[in-house]
Amino acid sequence: MVIKSEDGKELGSFNFKDEDESQEVRAIERKVLLEALANQLPSDAISFSSKLSSIERSDKGETLLKLEDDTQMSAKIVIACDGIRSPVAKWMGFPEPRYVGHIAFRGLGFYPEGQPFEQKVIYTYGRGVRAGYVPVSPTKVYWFIINNSPTPGPKITDPSLLRQITKELLGNWSTELLNIMKSTPDDRIIRTPLVDRWPWPGISPPASTGAVVLVGDAWHPMTPNLGQGACCALEDAVVLAKKLAQAINLGTMSIEDAFTSYGRERWPRIFPLSVRANLVGAFLQSDNPLVCFIRNNIVVPKLVRGGPMLEHANFEFESLY
């Protein structure tokens, strides 16, 4: 990892394995990850393009689901992994995620003949703006730019406008990043207002109600500042699978109890991560000159180290088999 200031000065760098043998950073395109998971299932197990429009409880205690194509189904168990705008979470009483004051522009540079970059995470910090990039495959490089904005603003999907905004945000920061952006196909650039929702103890609804349970962003949307959003969703899945195995295979608890136990076990992990991700983002995005001076001259060069920096990513679990 290499961290720079907006004028190109290197503030700090380290190799994760040199800092802590147990730590690593692995960048992977989400599409590839989803395909790898989906390929482990029977071919007819997933119905794509089946967005949920509404959910309600039947008189028999089952859950009725209605999809946007007017398909209806009755489910004994619902595991909702339907993202930050989850209709299921809304039905369970969760408020809308809260905008945190930052906009993320993200893209995937494509190099058909092979991308030229080393296996490094490159960060650049400015005042109220930060950017970075990292290779995710032999031909693709992920990049991002995050800037402060008092409001989420209108939805923008026009690639030419997105390119113009990101170029203006970067200014003369990094010719490498500008070149990666030029190598990004139009359909691989997105703009996303960053949001989160902290699962406050005693205030937020629980992760489950009856035989309906939330997983990942549907339950605990967090900002990407720790790189743990998708990782926490995978952890959720591991713990939930363990609880369901105990309920179904061993008969040690009901499905409802399994869901409740899952929520109790996961909460001490995801609540502090959600809070920490928010606070780290607020610090890194600061446009206050004094805060930026402290960040660039004290925190990054003297305090940031690979091992401690990734301790939050440690997750131990027993084999599911």
UniProtKB/TrEMBL annotation:
Domain FAD-binding: 34-268
Entry's transmembrane regions: none
Annotated stretches, region: Disordered: 1-22
Biased composition (Basic and acidic residues): 1-10
GO molecular function, one term: FAD binding
One Pfam assignment: FAD_binding_3
Keywords: Monooxygenase, Oxidoreductase
Family assignment from sequence similarity: Belongs to the 3-hydroxybenzoate 6-hydroxylase family.
Name under which the protein is recorded: Monooxygenase 2-like isoform X1
Organism in which the protein naturally occurs: Olea europaea subsp. europaea
